[in-house]
Amino acid sequence: MSYSSQVEQDYEVRGWYSSVQEIRHDGGKPGESLVKVATGVIIRNPFAGQFAADLSVLTKPSAAIGHALGERAVALLGNRRVESYGKGGIAGTAGEQEHVVACVTTVFGDPLREQVGGGQAWISSVSKVACAGTSIDIPLAHKDELYIRSHYDAVTFAVPDGPRPDEILICVAVASGPRVHQRVGGKSVADLKAAL
Prior knowledge:
Blueprint: H1 3-10, E1 13-23, E2 34-44, H2 56-59, H3 63-76, E3 84-91, H4 97-103, H5 106-115, E4 124-129, E5 136-142, E6 153-157, E7 167-175, H6 189-195
Parallel strand pairs: 3-4
Antiparallel strand pairs: 1-2, 2-7, 3-5, 3-7, 5-6
């Protein structure tokens, strides 16, 4: 069984979504393209409109979401390595921010790391409550070292008709490298390699 099929068994899935950006330059001389990908899934929120102390029904099966979204994101990068990642989501207006967080804990994060080829660093995250069509800026940081300044970035992602009030959008973002024309110093990938 595929990871996506497992997600569809564990949650009520309305749809899968993705976006790809390929950036050649940002005003300077064009160089190697930076590719940034976001993938997401919209699921029904079983806690919409009610408060529940135990959110484990969202957390326990969330490993499959981490696998499925990571697998989809890596595929969209083509043959490029993942250098940075992030995660997040939006709860529809009948839900809570905590409903998103319940879906993107370590249960979700470790499978995402596995899909992107490992990751020693904490996964940058964002969550909020909003109406359908609201965009989310998924933060990016280097997957092996949070303090590599060249990889601080974000991917803006939106689903035009979601999440609806009783839904949750869970999403991840990955990138193939640092910001285009990054040049403000700080800890670098070379520093990371030297430390290994």
